[in-house]
Amino acid sequence: MLLGKAQKIGYFKPIINTDPAEFKDVHIQTILSHFQLPLAFEDTYAFTRAEALQLLNEQSQGEMIDTIISRFKKIEENYDFTVIEGGDFTGQGTAFDFESNLLIARNLNAPVVLVISGDGKSISEIIQDGLNLFHAYQSREIQVLALVANKVHVDQANDVRKLLASQLPKGTISAVISADKALQNPTVSDIFGHLDGRLLFGSEHLSNQVDNFVTGAMQVPNFLSFLKENVLIVTPGDRGDIIISSLQANLSSSYPRVAGIVLTAGVVPEEPVMRLIEGLQNVVPIIAVNGGTFETTNKIAAVKARITPDNSKKIQLAIDTFNRCVDTGALDEKMVTYHSDAMTPHMFQYQLSKWAKKEIKNIVLPEGNDDRIILAAGRLIAQQLVKLTLLGNPTEIAASIKRLGIDLDINDINIIDPANSGHYEDYVETLYELRKSKNLTMEMARDLMTDVSYFGTMMVYKGHADGMVSGAVHTTQHTIRPALQFIKTKPGISTVSSIFFMCLEDRVSVFGDCAVNPNPTAEELAQIAISSADNSMRFGIEPRIAMLSYSSGTSGAGEDVEKVRRATELVRQQRPDLKVEGPIQYDAAVDPVVGQQKLPGSEVAGQASVLIFPDLNTGNNTYKAVQRETGALAIGPMLQGLNKPVNDLSRGCTVDDVFNTVIITAIQSQNA
């Protein structure tokens, strides 16, 4: 939440549970890794719990606090806001955690968000624990921003929510997070880390969640009846029948998903069984251990879930749960935070999600059979950012969802096979009426409407979808041709163009046009600049337009420079409200020192946020060079100028590219 408002966020856990030489604190590792915080692990803590307890026993509490303050101040000096994680009340020394949290919060003058656990407690116990903790902090004159009751049984949640709200002082935020097995239950990776074993197969599926486990020590028909969703199967390594039937059940749509298999007694399957498994395309994790079945089952039962850096699914679920259950707007108002004028990549991506959720839109993805599309769909639905329609064969898409191990309910997405759609005939008739003047016959219309790009675009045209994202499999021409034919351009705009949002280390820049127009005229270049500036504002970036060329100001001459100079004048005439400079070289546009040397006094030079390239050759190569050499995230291309949003993907796109482009399309459609 803070990364959406401030550029530099620090993280500090004064006292960690274990010696980093033996085991690094998993909370710190996860936070630093997932949010890409530029902190070294050793700078994020002051003491291990053993070291802190030793100082306490030696009555050196003052020394402990002095060191904590010193370490915290080093972080505070370099960051806009620092989050401090207190002790977690696990294991021995819970009284020490309670007292040290109070002490640290008081000495660092830090307001607090209190979290209590409702696991295994009655409603009255949860309320009493919460009030006791609140009053303990209040009595030490520590500001309590919020009290969160975590892991509350779903049947108790409403009562706990009402009682906390009524018994806490007015203005104190209270929140209740229901127990969620997807967060509480371990992954196969968690279990593997606690077992002294070796991984035989399935390393790519170690993030599978384990909701149940069963011992496979009976005949196969009886065994199969005990399988439940996300089950971990524990069986002796010589039970080839159990192993093969488990793997087959996982592939079958008639049985629940299998999370993994643990082979006990120090035995691995015989060679024919191993060879059979090696030939399978989709194998769940199979772990071999030396211990007996009973001993191993007890170890598994004792494993506690952790949110680890590699488990992006659980991290995202935790973030989504926080955003859903906690009033982040009220919490934000209570915190004194630094508000940067710059739009950093973290702020930009945070804002994208926030904007998308303001008005949930339905986006159609014509390439519904592509794995990248399906994986992105799972993330989008899980975060409740959009509604989705996938085009393709429903049975094949359902099978792919299971094969990919995505936690996506098939009922949460709309899957349409164009040729079998109830809208097919209507779409054919509409296309014929729209294009018959262009010599399109009814037979041609029928043929075109089986094409997913035409079908998806027609859904947008008819209002059955709010926007479309395609191009993972199809070419740019194939994706946008139908849109140009009947969605057409907005009034007053004759040029369809594109922009990329370039998420650099400390800022977000808009690059246009790097994907559509090979050699735009001065008039087209001016339209591209104006459209890019308007979209820049729409996405929270103040537009300062640089019309790029190989010379700056009046230093150069030639046909190409004159085109850019003419385009700059047209922008000034048509939109005097926009800050624009051109012609200008790239270095003068983005480097403050060079900018002031070449164009002193310019409002744009050295601080351009919208960079307009003179042709496709320059733009496409530049954005790719910047992306590759700096590690910048390039979100787009986003098409601009159409009446309704249709956006194109690269055929080399990643799941993240699909995810971001769908969100941008949804936001575009809010104003379409």
TrEMBL record:
Pathway: Metabolic intermediate biosynthesis; acetyl-CoA biosynthesis; acetyl-CoA from acetate: step 2/2. CDD domains: DTBS. It is found in: Cytoplasm. Residues 190-302 form the DRTGG domain. Its EC number is 2.3.1.8. Keywords: Acyltransferase, Cytoplasm, Transferase. Pfam families: AAA_26 (PF13500), DRTGG (PF07085), PTA_PTB (PF01515). It comes from the Bacteria. The keyword Cytoplasm applies. NCBIfam families: PRK05632.1 (NF004167), PRK09653.1 (NF007233), pta (TIGR00651). InterPro entries: DRTGG (IPR010766), P-Actrans_bac (IPR016475), P-loop_NTPase (IPR027417), P_AcTrfase (IPR004614), P_AcTrfase_dom1 (IPR042113), P_AcTrfase_dom2 (IPR042112), Phos_Acetyltrans/Butyryltrans (IPR050500), PTA_PTB (IPR002505). This is Phosphate acetyltransferase. Residues 347-666 form the Phosphate acetyl/butaryl transferase domain. The keyword Transferase applies. SUPFAM superfamilies: HprK N-terminal domain-like, Isocitrate/Isopropylmalate dehydrogenase-like, P-loop containing nucleoside triphosphate hydrolases. In the N-terminal section; belongs to the CobB/CobQ family. In the C-terminal section; belongs to the phosphate acetyltransferase and butyryltransferase family. Homohexamer. The lineage of its organism: Bacteria, Pseudomonadati, Bacteroidota, Sphingobacteriia, Sphingobacteriales.
